[in-house]
Specification:
Layout lengths: L1 H7 L11 H12 L9 H8 L1 H10 L7 E4 L2 H11 L3 E5 L9 E3 L2 H11 L15 H13 L7 H5 L25 E5 L5 E9 L4 E12 L9 E3 L6 H18 L3 E10 L2 E8 L6 H8 L3 H9 L4 H4 L10 E7 L20 E7 L2 H11 L8 E6 L1 H8 L2 H9 L4 E3 L4 H8 L4 E2 L2 H4 L3 E7 L5 H12 L4 E2 L2 H10 L13
Parallel strand pairs: 12-13, 12-15, 13-14, 15-16
Antiparallel strand pairs: 1-4, 2-3, 2-4, 5-6, 5-8, 6-7, 7-10, 8-9, 10-11
Helix pairs in contact: 2-3, 5-6, 13-19
Length: 489
């Protein structure tokens, strides 16, 4: 970067449009004399530092999930025990949620620590000395864990050699310094996650949009569908989110863009993180409101005020819109479609609708995940089936919409007894074309799961992995009426 600056000699350098990487360079660039404009680098550094931002949040009386930091495995175990399981664990300074996992018990935490971080070993590269024996030991370890203990991202690395370490590999108690400190949060199970994008000139804040994520807490925001305007938050919660964002932006002294990520649980708002930069949702907000926030933010960073720009009121969505992610499952046939704390999407689409749910249903078409006529194929583990049995109203509504229930021949009879509903036995080897929609929910991605999902994916079957997405689809099906309408409407 300094070499480029030396050649180009820019009048101003903006660090708010490149994600986390330029934010981490901001202080060093400023110290080297580079003219960084917008939010001061020291403010950026404070917002990125968990302990310093926590002190800031306490001063503003903001709620945050209970959390701890750890620099050794022993500290991590003590922190998780103090917080109580489940916990959300992640390395500091990662992109796309890399290495994040939801851990449900101490056994899962030990597995995570041993599989993710070995002193001197890259968390993302397979060590050359791990062969077949190590892989077999990894499989035995996973089999010994309960379904509740299988920990998202750590589990999904099973096929990449990360779980196959010898005990000697973990000699010592130190976490890989590149992951330090390890951040451990109490997991807000069932919370609705929210993104707020805003502009601030240091004196005034304009809210660009308040977006509600479809999937509940535990799914990376970059892999979750989101709605603008929000559909279920309620006016009071939305107003509180707007006020909270204003307070944070003004207290920090933001100049340009700010993104606040929050979770709403039982009517309470918890701040998850604050990013003094443009987020991946800024282009979406711009399309929905018709106002390019990036252009306005650039002018603000170069000295204009919101008054100068004539933007003094919060932006208003032009209608109901949904942003949906695109997962590269067609490129990796058989890969797990389960959404985790790690981000895996490679693109995004958006759609308008007559209401939020219609927008969601239409976004599935844009994302090549549209339900077609046929059966609702259920492929779920016992824990998910227990939850499914509590949502018979959802299943009945989908059956009434033209999706009769079906399952693998080996599980269909038991599933029918469990749900007290007819469940057809459908062999995907010969009858995959009869499936119009699939609900897949497994923590342990076994070879049998791989085989079934290869057949579903190869036939282009729409796959949903959360109850929230399935419910949104059910509510949005009436919005898929594409009958011609007069242009005046």
């Amino acid at each position: 970067m300094l070499a480029i600056v030396e050649v180009e000699r820019p009048d101003a350098v903006i660090v708010q449009f490149g994600g986390q990487t330029p934010l981490r360079l901001a202080v060093a660039l400023a110290e080297a004399g580079v003219p960084v404009v917008g939010t001061p680098p020291e403010v950026i550094e404070m917002a990125e530092d968990r302990e310093r931002f926590s002190a800031f949040a306490r001063r503003l009386d903001l709620k945050m999930p209970a959390h701890r930091t750890a620099r050794t495995a022993a500290e991590a175990r003590d922190a998780a025990a103090a917080l109580g399981f489940p916990v959300l664990v992640r390395p500091s300074h990662v992109l796309g949620g890399r290495g994040m996992a939801i851990l449900h018990d101490a056994a899962a935490l030990d597995l995570y620590l041993r599989s993710q971080f070995h002193p001197g070993d890259s968390p993302t590269a397979q060590r050359p000395d791990r062969g077949r024996a190590a892989q077999e030991r990894a499989a035995q370890e996973r089999a010994a864990l309960t379904g509740a203990a299988l920990a998202g991202a750590a589990l999904e690395r099973a096929g990449q050699g990360h779980l196959g370490a010898d005990p000697a590999d973990s000699a010592g108690d130190a976490i890989d310094p590149r992951a330090m400190p390890l951040l451990i949060d109490a997991f807000l199970d069932g919370a609705v996650e929210v993104d707020v994008d805003a502009l601030c000139d240091g004196r005034r804040v304009v809210i660009g949009g308040v977006m509600e994520q479809i999937e509940r807490a535990g799914v990376h925001s970059g892999d979750s569908a989101c709605l603008l305007p929000p559909a279920t938050l309620g006016a009071e919660v939305e107003a509180e989110l707007r006020a909270l964002t204003r307070r944070i932006a003004l207290e920090l002294g933001v100049v340009g863009l700010i993104n606040v990520q929050a979770a709403v649980l039982d009517g309470q708002i918890f701040v998850l993180e604050v990013n003094p930069r443009g987020s991946r949702t800024v282009p979406f907000v711009g399309k929905v409101t018709g106002v390019c926030m990036a252009t306005l933010a650039t002018q603000i960073m170069l000295g204009a005020t919101l008054d100068d720009l004539g933007v003094v009121e919060d932006l208003i969505p032009a209608g109901f819109a949904c942003k949906e992610v695109v997962l590269p499952l067609s490129r990796f046939n058989g890969a797990s479609p389960m959404l985790r704390p790690e981000m895996r999407s490679t693109g995004e689409v958006m759609a308008w609708g007559p209401d939020p749910w219609g927008a969601f249903a239409r976004a599935q078409i844009a994302a090549s995940n549209a339900a077609s006529s046929g059966a609702l194929f259920i492929d779920a583990d016992p824990a998910a089936l227990d939850l499914l049995a509590e949502r018979l109203d959802l299943l009945d509504a989908l059956v009434a919409a033209g999706f009769p229930l079906a399952a693998d021949p080996a599980s269909a009879p038991a599933l029918s007894d469990r749900l007290q509903r007819p469940v057809a036995a459908l062999d995907l080897r010969d009858e995959a074309e009869r499936v119009g929609l699939a609900f897949v929910a497994h923590r342990d991605w076994t070879p049998a799961c791989v085989a079934r999902n290869r057949r579903l994916q190869s036939h282009g079957v729409a796959i949903f992995t959360t109850f929230e997405a399935l419910e949104a689809l059910r509510r949005g099906l009436p919005g898929l009426d594409f009958a011609p309408r007069p242009i005046q409407r």
